[in-house]
Amino acid sequence: MAESGYIAPSGRIVVAGRPRPIFRTVEDATDFYPGRTAIRGSSDKQIKVGDGLNPVLGFIGFEGADASSKPATKATAYAAATSDVGIEAPLLVGGGYAILGKLAKGFVAVQGEDLFSWSKGRVVPGMMIGGCPAIRVPFVKKTAEFDTTIDLPAGLIIEDVIVKVVTAAESGTIDIGTLSSESSGDADGLIDGESCALAGWVAHNLVDATAGNITIGDLLVESEIKTADGTALYLPNKKVPGYVVDAERSLSYTTSNHTIAGSFYLKVISPGVQKIGRAVMGKDASSADGDIILEAVI
Predict the structure, then answer these.
(1) What is the pLDDT of residues 176-235, one digit of tens each?
(2) In terms of domains, do 129 and 85 share one?
């Protein structure tokens, strides 16, 4: 960890700094692990793990927890409080400290990248685009529909999807959507045939004489308009505020048979997706949730 200036902690989750602990009752033990984010429970005195939908209060602490409540290890979830046993956990707040968080499966974070809150108390990489958090998902050549293993929480709003190409190929394209093997899945419902012919940011094709050449998918479109020109043009009327995820959905993508790579950014609207830190080290969580040191801003 020399490159980051931090050393991964052993037996603790606070890497540096002194967050302010506020003790709250653990309402729900599901995924309530040290180092994950927490949100308000049924009352101001209760907390549960962050869900990507509700505002984040802080991080779940480990060191400093009362012996009667503290899990055996930092990899063990807290138990939930009962009518007989009051389980409390330290809620770490205040910003200005470094902590060992959890990067969500399917994502790859780069050193210095902003990190946003996500489901199950995890974090995801991204940036702000047009006032919205834009969650970054890497892509490579996948000629068959590829399940990113990223789950979109029900209730999340996807305002748009923007592609950034790093490795381009003439005639290369990408489809992005929800896994087609799931009920009502739509493999090109978000992006349909976006060009990857040039490196850099890709603008949608929103006006075309052929309706099938429009590159935003049906999940983002309210209706399609046909002009009365001699040569008719087609343009989509986008949904406002966007695609409301109706049930937990698996995110997928498919590319053409070309060697292309890059990232696409999901512009999301949700009080539970907010900037909470910055990655001080790179982390590849392509195959499993991974520990990541981050500098907290909450």
Answers:
(1) 999 999 999 999 999 999 999 999 999 999 999 999 999 999 999 999 999 999 999 999
(2) no
Nearest partner of 126 among 117, 115, 140, judged by Cα = 115
Assess contact for 142 and 254: CB atoms under 8 A. yes
At 58, list the tokens. Answer: 């802080």
**Contact residues for 94 (Cβ-Cβ < 8 A; gap 6+):** 19, 20, 58, 298
Greatest pairwise CA separation for the chain in angstroms: 77
Instruction: Find the Cα–Cα–Cα–Cα dihedral 154, 155, 157, 158, rounded to 10°.
Output: 0
Read out DSSP for 86-110? --EEEEEESSSEEEEEEEPTTEEE-
Q: Is residue 9 part of a domain?
A: no
CA distance 173 to 188: 11
For 238-267, write each residue's pLDDT tens digit.
999 999 999 999 999 999 999 999 999 999
For the full predicted model, state whether its pTM sits above 0.90: yes
pLDDT score at 3: 64
114, two tokens: 């902003």
Residue 6 lies in a domain: no
Domain range for 49 is 14-100
227 with 122, same domain: the answer is yes
Q: Show Cβ contacts of residue 193 under 8 Å, excluding neighbours closer than 6 positions.
A: 173, 174, 175, 213, 215
The H-assigned helical ranges of 149-296 are none
Please report the DSSP string for 48-73 in residue order: EE--SSS-EEEEE--TT--TTT--SS
Q: Which two tokens stand for residue 68?
A: 């009667």
